[in-house]
């Protein structure tokens, strides 16, 4: 009988404790809350609707480590590259690496099923000098 009372006492303590932990986790947000907030607060870079998907286009300017503006005015976000966002560690280095690899060059763009994101940026796999850009970026960082 004492063991049953002891087990019931443990249940009375564990159940509220588990509920409290679940509630605090829910109210505390996720570990990615800051990153999600940063993404949601990013302004639209361009209001250009993605209509024509260029196969080859010159890079007008580098925006950050994984985003460029093309000579036709469209903004392109690289698929397969996830560079640090504004204010994150290594953000400047990622932008510099992207600048060295593509600034002023004509690049080839390959597309998947999704061709644009909610910011109306072109989503493409970039090819630089006939090479897959993500591989070029990895080699750049190794050297």
Order of helices and strands: HHEEEHEEEH
What is the CATH topology classification name of the largest domain? OB fold (Dihydrolipoamide Acetyltransferase, E2P)
Helix-strand category? alpha+beta
Per CATH, the class of the largest domain reads Mainly Beta
Low-confidence segments, given as residue ranges, are 45-50, 139-143
Give the tally of β-strands. Answer: 6
* Number of separate domains: 2
Task: Assign a percent range to the helix content.
Answer: 40-55%
Biggest sheet: strands, sense, closure?
A: 5 strands, mixed, barrel
| Chain oligomer state | single chain
Specify Rg, calculated over alpha carbons. 24 Å
Question: How are the strands ordered across the major sheet?
Answer: 1-2-3-5-4
Percent strand equals: 15-25%
Q: How far apart are the termini?
A: 71 Å
Mean pLDDT: 76
**CATH architectural category of the largest domain:** Beta Barrel
Shape: elongated
What is the overall number of helices? 4
Write the layout of secondary structure elements.
Blueprint: H1 2-28, H2 33-41, E1 56-64, E2 67-70, E3 75-78, H3 91-102, E4 106-110, E5 122-128, E6 131-132, H4 133-142
Short description:
The protein has two domains: about 30 residues; about 100 residues, Beta Barrel (OB fold (Dihydrolipoamide Acetyltransferase, E2P)), CATH 2.40.50.
Could you walk me through the main structural features you see in this protein, from its secondary elements to its overall organization?
The structure is a single chain. This protein is α+β, with helices and mostly antiparallel strands and 143 residues long. It has two domains: 2-30; 45-142, OB fold (Dihydrolipoamide Acetyltransferase, E2P) (Beta Barrel), CATH 2.40.50. Helix content is 41%, strand content 22%. The protein contains four helices and six strands, in the order H-H-E-E-E-H-E-E-E-H. It has helices at residues 2-28, 33-41, 91-102, 133-142, and strands at residues 56-64, 67-70, 75-78, 106-110, 122-128, 131-132. Strands 1-2-3-5-4 form a five-stranded mixed β-barrel. A hairpin with a 4-residue loop joins strand 2 and strand 3 (75-78). The longest helix is centred in the first third of the chain and has 27 residues, at 2-28. The protein is elongated. The termini are far apart. The model is unreliable at 45-50 and 139-143 (pLDDT under 50).
């Amino acid at each position: 009988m004492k063991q049953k009372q002891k087990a019931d006492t443990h249940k009375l303590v564990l159940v509220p404790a588990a509920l409290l932990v679940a509630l605090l986790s829910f109210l505390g947000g996720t570990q990615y809350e800051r990153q999600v907030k940063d993404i949601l607060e990013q302004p639209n870079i361009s209001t250009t609707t993605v209509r024509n998907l260029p196969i080859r286009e010159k890079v007008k300017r580098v925006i950050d480590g994984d985003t460029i503006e093309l000579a036709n005015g469209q903004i392109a976000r690289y698929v397969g590259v996830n560079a640090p966002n504004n204010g994150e560690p290594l953000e400047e280095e990622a932008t510099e690496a992207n600048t060295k690899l593509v600034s002023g060059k004509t690049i080839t763009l390959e597309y998947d099923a999704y061709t644009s994101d909610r910011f109306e940026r072109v989503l493409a796999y970039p090819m630089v000098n006939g090479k897959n850009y993500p591989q070029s970026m990895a080699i750049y960082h190794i050297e």
